[in-house]
Amino acid sequence: MQEGNSIFSRLDVKKYILKKNLKRDLPASIVVFLVALPLCLGIALASGAPLFAGLIAGIIGGVVVASFSGSQLSVTGPAAGLTVIVLGAIAQLGSYQTFLLAVVLAGVMQMVLGMIKAGTIGNYFPSSVIEGMLAAIGLILILKQLPHALGVDSDFPGDESFFQKNDENTFSAINSALSHFSLAAIVISALSIAILLFWPKIKKVSSIPAPLIVVVLGIALSYAFKSTSYALEAKQMVAIPVVQGWSEFMGLFTLPNFAAIGNKDVWVVAGTIAIVASLETLLSIEAVDKIDPIKRISPTNRELFAQGIGNVASGMIGGLPMTSVIVRSSANVNAGGRTKMSAIFHGCWLLLSLLFIPGIINMVPLACLAAILLVTGYKLTRIELFKHMYHKGWDQFVPFVVTVVAVLLTDLLKGVAIGMLVSIFYLLRTNMRNPFFYRIHEEGNKKNIRIKLAEEVSFLNKAAIQVMLNRIPKETTVTIDGSNSRYIDPDVLETIFNYKHNAYTKGIIVILEDIKSHYIVPKLTNKLEDINN
Fold first, then answer.
1. C-alpha span between 309 and 106 (Å, rounded)
2. What is the pLDDT of residue 152?
3. Extents of the domains making up the chain
4. What's the CA dihedral at 384, 387, 388, 389 to 10 degrees?
5. Which residues fall within 8 angstroms of residue 109, CB to CB, at 6 or more apart?
6. How many angstroms separate the Cα of 87 from the Cα of each of 34, 94, 165, 281, 337?
7. Architecture label for domain 440-520
8. 444 to each of 217, 449, 507, how far by Cα in Å?
9. What string of DSSP letters covers 456-517?
10. Which BP terms in the Gene Ontology apply to this protein (predicted)?
11. Between 42 and which of 10, 79, 156, 340 could a Cys-Cys bridge form, CB atoms 3.0 to 4.6 Å apart?
12. Which three-class secondary structure state does DSSP give residue 116?
């Protein structure tokens, strides 16, 4: 009887948690939907693919990937970082159907990467680089959305590259927009920003999502300006495909060309998509975990497998390749999302809007959606973050700033790669200066030195050990003690043995204690057993 009561109590707790989270996830899903809609369409347009392909990727990313993913806040969809690859691949392969086969194969490759635990690569991204990436994305959102907020929509929504396809760059586009702005767009975006900032502070109405109010206001104001000389043009509005009936909807789907399975170019494109999409996903997952208020850790291998399932599904019915995307994920966090239900709901809203209310969606001005992204960008790149990184020291602040600047002036992957290189430089520099891996004891007449190595001595310690050994004075007896060492890197061992072999030329006697000729990397399970014992 007590066991039955405990089961019911656990069920009640789960229902309570689900209900409590639903109050947050449902409004957050609407915000993510509003952010994702123009991005899906814009990325499809920039990729040279059908507009419907972007929506398919967004729907599957929300419903399918989120269902299999272990991340609670990550949102998946078509990514701006893949637009150049997709555009070139479609042209190279000759048809969109053949490209879809490459998307399916890329998904299979990602599933394999998840099964062989390649997602652990994400654990090696330095915190300073991830923080820099988040700040850079925030600045990109602000800089890229300013022209849309001013009513100039010459660049596709969601573009993150410094150099744009319209021969402008991020800064010149803002300058051009200032001389070709739309008064109606400025009014809509300004009022939208004010609502986004102040609406949540009014307790009586704060339960209604501010972005939803922004969209309603945007539609109303666009109608108000319609009869004036400041009326918004069609290109300044959302342009979702309007489907006339179920048969036309089914006709939008495209199947991959499996006859091209033997084409080596298809496999090259698939491999490229799999690698780039996986890297962007791992970076995004790491970043989302950073801004998760509950500080949960997402299983990266499971995420790669989920992304693979999503890309297989997307490619099978005509969708674009997808990744976990930081912009939509950030919007989800900032909107108060708590579980993966917000991402799943956002995918459902994308599907329902396409089927039932495309006409209403096409009344939404891009300016009010730009306002939502501007506020999201501001929250990502707040001044406090720069101050926090500065107080952590130069070895954290410099890679952070370099990552911010590099991402701004190039793109996400190139910028992160540059930030990683700078971070590695500081890591090596720290290891050069930090003698934690050895101790020197001077005995008697200071001609006897004992060097006691630490439990683990890695390749990163090699340079510092070489410098230390080269500074040992002549006519000295040196004892290198490895009794505490569970593992010594082969390169470090070679350095020690070479030093012993050549030290006699300086009159130095080298004694090796408990230094093996070979070490096996200790397994984590063994360490855990030692702890338990």
1. 10
2. 93
3. 38-383, 440-520
4. 130
5. 270, 271, 274, 308
6. 25, 11, 12, 20, 33
7. 2-Layer Sandwich (3.30)
8. 84, 10, 18
9. EE-GGGHHHHHHHHHTSPSS-EEEEE-TT-SEE-HHHHHHHHHHHHHGGGGT-EEEEES--S
10. transmembrane transport
11. 156
12. coil
Q: Is 312 helix (H, G, I), strand (E, B) or coil?
A: helix
- CA distance linking residue 139 with residue 514, whole number of Å: 54
CB 277 within 8 Å of CB 322: yes
User: Packing angle between helix 300-317 and helix 96-115, nearest 10 degrees?
Assistant: 160
Which position has the token pair 């200066």?
Answer: 433
| Mean pLDDT (whole number) for 471-478 | 85
Which residue type does 411 have? D
User: Which conformational region is residue 71 in: left (phi greater than 0), alpha (psi within -120 to 50 degrees), or beta?
Assistant: beta
Closest CA to 71 of 294, 320, 313, 347: 294
Backbone torsions φ then ψ of 204, nearest 5 degrees? -65, -30
- Please give the Cα distance from 167 to 38 (Å, whole number): 22
Sheet architecture: strand order including 509-513? 440-443, 448-452, 477-481, 509-513
Calpha distance 137→160 (Å, rounded):
8
Give the integer Cα–Cα distance in Å for 399 and 175.
Answer: 29
Give the pairing type, strands 323-324 and 76-77: antiparallel
Q: Which residues have CB under 8 Å from 423's CB, separation 6+?
A: 126, 128, 129, 399
pLDDT number for residue 16: 58
DSSP character string of 426-455: HHHHHHHH--TT--EEEETTTTEEEEE--S
Torsion over CA: 524, 121, 299, 319 (sign): negative
According to DSSP, the β-strands at 456-457 and 477-481 are unpaired
Q: What is the DSSP letter of 159?
A: -
Backbone angles phi, psi at 517, to 5 degrees: -80, -15
Q: Tens of pLDDT along 354-411?
A: 989 999 999 999 999 999 999 999 999 988 999 999 998 898 999 999 999 999 998 8
Q: Are 454 and 436 in contact (CB under 8 A)?
A: yes
The distance in angstroms from the start CA to the end CA of the chain is 38
In the Cβ-directed half-sphere of 416, how many Cα atoms lie within 13 Å?
Answer: 22
Amino acid at 155: D
The CA-atom distances, in angstroms, between 475 and each of 106, 250, 392, 472, 499 are 62, 86, 43, 9, 14
pLDDT at 335: 92
Q: Name 6's Cβ contacts closer than 8 Å, sequence gap at least 6.
A: none
> Which residues have CB under 8 Å from 454's CB, separation 6+?
436, 437, 438, 484, 485
pLDDT digits (tens, 9 = 90+) for 119-143: 988 888 888 999 999 999 999 999 9
In one-letter notation, the amino acid at residue 396 is Q
